[in-house]
Amino acid sequence: GEAHWKQLPPFPGQPELAGLARRGFWSALWRDKLQAALPQATATADGFHALCFDNLIRFHTISGTWTTIARQASQFVPGQNAVWCLTTGGLLRSQPGEAKPTVYAPGQGLAAGRPVGLAVTEQAVWVLSEPDYDAAAQRYVGGGISRFELAGNTWTVTEKVNEMDIRFATAIAA
After folding, report:
1. 3-state secondary structure of 95
2. Pairing of strands 47-52, 139-141
3. 140, 86 in Cβ contact below 8 A?
4. What span, in angstroms and rounded, lies between the C-alpha atoms of 42 and 86?
5. Distance between the two ends of the chain, CA-based, in angstroms?
6. Residue in 155, 152, 143, 76 with CA at minimum distance from that of residue 115
């Protein structure tokens, strides 16, 4: 048989993205210095996920509809039975069939500070966080590498490796 393409319904952020394309991508680069319009998109077991204008959106293949899962999102990684996403509010886990994602806030298992990097393996979710500066104490607090053990739902935060301060690490990969 012949394969036929089916047009998807409009998605959240589509009018902004279409306007950006009509004006030309250079206008976004000059106006906002750099605007990440659609930096990441991935097919997953329960649909299609994309980052669009700092929102994590999902297309449900069964219902044929789009849903906004998270706002102020910077990165996402599909894992086993979940999509993990960094937001300004911490780490978010979205699982098929869940009405609301689970949020892990900085300082509540996840290292205090701003989450900036994400990696997912079969056993764990790893989050890299930058420390915050505490002006009253005149020092940096938080930061480091957080490891969420999937089997036991437990957190481990590491700030030093062999006496080296890793709270200011800049990249993580699985």
Report:
1. coil
2. unpaired
3. no
4. 15
5. 40
6. 143
Question: How far apart, in whole angstroms, are the C-alpha atoms of residue 23 and residue 26?
Answer: 8
**% of the chain exceeding 90 in pLDDT:** 49
pTM: 0.81
Residue 34 has a pLDDT of: 46
- Identify residue 110 by its one-letter amino acid code: L
The tokens describing 60, both together, are: 């449900």
Residue written as token pair 């950006």: 20
CA–CA dist 130, 144 (Å, integer): 7
Closest by Cα among 52, 54, 60 to 96: 60
Q: What is the pLDDT of residues 74-119, one digit of tens each?
A: 999 999 889 999 999 999 999 988 889 999 999 999 999 999 999 9
Q: How far apart are CA 113 and CA 143, in angstroms?
A: 5
CA torsion 89-98-120-78 (nearest 10°) is: -110
